[in-house]
Write a structure and sequence with these properties.
This protein is of the alpha/beta class and 567 residues long. It has 15 helices and 23 strands. The chain has a domain of 83 residues: Golgi alpha-mannosidase II (Immunoglobulin-like, Sandwich), CATH 2.60.40.1180. The strands form six sheets. An eight-stranded parallel beta sheet has the order 13-12-11-5-2-1-15-14. The protein has a six-stranded antiparallel beta sheet with strand order 16-17-18-23-20-21. The longest helix has 21 residues. It starts with a helix and ends with a strand. The chain binds alpha-D-glucopyranose and magnesium ion. The site of magnesium ion has 6 residues, from loops. The site of magnesium ion (MG) has 6 residues, from loops.
């Protein structure tokens, strides 16, 4: 046999092995997730609020930009004190968003396009208008301990009744509110209108499982679990709730940060319920077939804690505890920060579980283009998709939308409104979001120049970079990340970040991103000659240009590129 044919056989063998290994990756492991904030994605009926039919009409856009699965912030019946995170009926669609028929139509269309739908699941609390809470107030039908009730204490000095503990809610002020009718305090980590469910009650567990069953039966693919660290609060054997120690971070006694949350945050019991749900979801899949019904978990917690969310070695929980490390990147960030934040996940969670995900924005945090800088918005897109694992994009970040000062007063708005403005589809009225006379939040005034339609036509727009990256995610090199030598990343200098993705001996991609304002020179990165396959607007190079990486290579300020080598 000639050496050439030997080589070909060798390559074929390699292909076969790599392809096999790559197809071993489950859908959620290397996915492109996209968060829709339903109020702000697309309005179909002109009332200025986004809705399900609006989403259905734009599912093709998600397909166009390479999304695999989209999670919807809550669409359930709600008085909207916390914009849907205060649910009155977990198995009803709020009329503002449409009907159950609209939901079914949306799901059917999504599946037809090969998109998965992930629903927000809010098991920590309900709305105070929820029938369960009303029944609990009246101590009806076993609902007595459905929420966390307590008589409180009598202040020995004043003789006045005070809350059971000093706990402050996330949105500040006591986490205990007095209910006149029941003559007891109830606990709410979030708003007064969001009483916490008592997750120690078996009946609550049953109700929560029933909610999941309901949506699974309709065909929902996965759940995003809200507020996981807040599931349980410490209750002592004598039924009391211990005070938390003062943190020293602030002098404002009303502030949530006034206390260290040793009794209200990440209690060990949180894990048990995640493991319980995983068992239920796995069993559901065994019985009904289909793809993995994954759980995405919202938890601002350390990698060690999140690692246990995935598995403690004997039990399994959520597949995707969201990695919020990059949420703390600000405009003073550099490549070393990216490396440090990436390591803090990879060293713990990758090492143990071979899984990773990268969240760059959501409805609770400043948008990356504002937080990190508009010049770097597309770079963050590149990094999020080039690191191994799953990327999570908040609607609008794919075009680099910015926070918008909605000029509201504290009494009539949410401090997070600036990141929740309508998606800017085009330069038409209301940015193409709605035909109405007004929209629930104003459309950012930059919509004429910053919108989907315009960016479609600009070769190096943030949108086209997003599309380029989601396409790369589907290549063998990007899919082979679990293999030995499948990926590497490194801050080459203070400002230059490099990511390498490899299908060993077959192809290699190399991302180089200069986060700084200076020209950077790099020497002898590899002996390969590579081709430019993706460039941002700051690159002077052209698609298809070749570069010999054994020599000096120059990166312009804010330049980010992807290079490719094929065997
Ligand atoms: C989660 C949501 C946030 C909401 C809170 C209470 O943190 O992301 O938007 O306010 O839960 O449900
Ligand atoms: Mg509407």
């Amino acid at each position: 046999m000639s050496s050439d044919s030997l080589r070909i056989i060798q390559i074929l063998l390699l292909c076969a092995c790599s392809a096999f290994a790559a197809s071993d990756v489950d859908w959620w492991e290397s996915a492109t997730l996209y968060q829709i904030y339903p109020r702000s994605f697309m309005d179909s009926d002109g009332d200025g609020v986004g809705d399900l039919n609006g989403i259905t009409s734009r599912l093709a856009f998600l397909k166009e930009i390479g999304v695999t699965a989209t999670w919807l912030s809550p669409i359930f019946e709600s008085p909207m004190a916390d914009m849907g995170y205060d649910v009155t009926n977990f198995t009803k669609v709020d009329p503002l968003f449409g009907t159950m028929e609209d939901f079914d139509a949306m799901l059917a269309k999504a599946h037809e396009l090969g998109l998965k739908i992930i629903l927000d699941f809010v098991p920590n609390h309900s709305s105070d208008q929820c029938e369960w809470f009303q029944k609990s107030i009246r101590r009806e039908d076993g609902y007595d301990d459905f929420y966390i009730w307590d008589d409180g204490k009598i202040d020995p000095q004043t003789g006045v009744r005070i809350p059971p503990s000093n706990w402050n809610s996330e949105f500040n002020g006591s986490a205990w509110s007095w209910n006149e009718q029941r003559q007891q305090y109830y606990f709410h980590w979030f708003l007064v209108e969001q009483p916490d469910l008592n997750l120690r009650s078996p009946m609550v567990h049953q109700h929560l499982i029933d909610i999941m069953k309901f949506w699974l039966a309709r065909g929902v693919d996965a759940f995003r679990i809200d507020a996981v660290p807040h599931f349980f609060e410490m209750r002592l054997a004598n039924g009391t709730y211990p005070d938390e120690p003062v943190s020293g971070f602030t002098n404002d006694t009303n502030s949530n940060r006034y206390y260290s949350h040793i009794y209200t945050f990440n209690q060990p019991e949180n894990l048990e319920i995640l493991y319980e749900w995983r068992e239920f979801l796995d069993e559901y899949q065994r019985q009904h077939g289909g793809d993995t019904r994954a759980m995405v978990a919202e938890a601002y917690a350390t990698a060690d804690i999140l690692s246990d969310y995935i598995s403690n070695g004997t039990h399994f929980g959520t597949q995707l505890p969201m990695n919020f490390n990059f949420i703390s990147l600000r405009s003073n960030m550099n490549a070393k920060d990216i490396e440090r934040f990436a390591n803090s996940w990879m060293d713990v969670i990758w090492t143990k579980h071979k899984t990773a995900n990268w969240v760059f924005g959501n409805h609770d945090n400043s948008r990356p283009a504002t937080r990190i800088g508009e010049k770097r918005a597309d770079m963050m897109t590149i990094i999020a998709h080039a690191l191994p694992g799953t990327s999570v994009t908040y609607y609008g970040d794919e075009i680099g939308m910015t926070d918008y000062d909605t000029k509201c007063t504290p009494s009539n708005c949410d401090f997070r409104d600036p990141v929740r403005t309508p998606l800017q589809w085009s330069s038409a009225k209301n940015g193409g979001f709605s035909t109405g006379n007004s929209t629930w939040l104003p459309v950012n005034s930059n919509f004429k120049t910053l919108n989907v339609q315009r960016q479609r036509g600009v070769a190096r727009s943030t949108l086209n970079i997003y599309k380029g990256m989601t396409a790369l995610k589907k290549t063998l090199a990007f899919k082979s990340y679990k293999e030995e030598g499948g990926f590497a990343y490194e801050a080459l200098t203070e400002q230059v970040f490099q990511i390498i993705r490899t299908a060993p001996k077959l192809e290699e991609y190399r991302v180089l991103a200069n986060f700084g304002r200076q020209i950077e020179y790099l020497y002898g990165l590899t002996n390969k000659t590579m081709e430019y396959v993706l460039l941002n607007a700051y690159s002077p190079h052209r698609f298809g240009d070749k570069v010999d990486l054994s020599k000096r290579i120059t990166l312009m300020p804010y330049e980010a590129v992807v290079l490719r080598w094929v065997a």
